[in-house]
Design a protein that fits this description.
This protein is an alpha/beta fold. It folds into 2 domains: 4-147 and 303-317, Rossmann fold (3-Layer(aba) Sandwich), CATH 3.40.50; 151-299, 3-Layer(aba) Sandwich (Rossmann fold). Helices cover 35% and strands 15% of the residues. The chain has a 5-stranded parallel beta sheet with strand order 1-7-6-2-3, sandwiched between helices. The protein is globular. The structure holds N-acetyl-L-norvaline and phosphoric acid mono(formamide)ester. Phosphoric acid mono(formamide)ester binds next to helix 2.
Amino acid sequence: MINKFTCVDDIGDIRSAVEEALEIKRDRFAYTELGRNRTLLMIFFNSSLRTRLSTQKAAMNLGMNVIVLDVNQGAWKLETERGVVMDGDKPEHLLEAIPVMGCFCDMIGVRSFAGLTDKKADYEERVIKQFIKYSGKPVFSMEAATRHPLQSFADLITIEEFKTKSRPKVVMTWAPHPKALPQAVPNSFAEWMNRTDYEFVITHPEGYELDPKFVGRAKVEYDRDKAFEGADFVYAKNWSAYADPNYGKVLSIDPRWTVDSAAMALTDNAYFMHCLPVRRNMIVTDEVIESDRSIVIPEAANREISAQTVIKRLLESMK
Ligand code: AN0
Ligand code: CP
């Protein structure tokens, strides 16, 4: 029974979650009655291509109705902090908006990225927590400030499908990007990998250390080439600095960290993964992302499956 999905803990045993996901993948229309006359409201504070399409499709597979709201396009801009004198550009507060949203749906998906200026506010997950507290409905994350669990679940399903060894070596590598990005995807990927028995290595330049809570049992290897040796999966992602005093900053755009064919040649013929969107020839070369070892498209396709598994479980606990 779950009434929220914001992190790996909410999915319980990951082995049975993957089994359920693969069962859904074999017949994604087996539960079209489950969501009948139920409405999913998807709230976006940030842009999205995959999450938007895959989550809506997943809900439709379960027979649900779906409303999508882009808060910054057409709705009132929302204040998220309590106690603010609202004399700026935000005409409405989340504290009214959330219960109102709750009136028109049975379940809410929320995308609200880290602001990357106030580490404490981001790591307290203030926005999604207010949705959980004030909506009166089951809430799931479509990427919140510190995690992107639907992505990590899809990543896990993908590795399970493609792995040829029972205990593959999975390497998460930082890669350069011109703009500051949240730590949500790497935090979350690490959190899910730490639940498996895979060999799990994280590699990044000095200064890009993630919150130790997410790093967990991972081996941190600063020498990227050494980290890549014998890898079965290379999971590339950029993130901005977590450690003080550089929280949210871009410290390096060193092109030596771009995943290229020479780096991939050090691996055990690894598959290349990225959550997308990806900037070519910053994060990864054209050659690598277009190679037959790139599995970014099946990885994206599994977003429908991870979302459907989570929404199915939320619907089942509402019955
Ligand atoms: C976002 C991020 O890095 O968190 C979303 C990734 C799924 N990426 C960008 O904003 C480019
Ligand atoms: N991977 C992912 O969440 O993509 P979008 O930002 O396009 O939803």
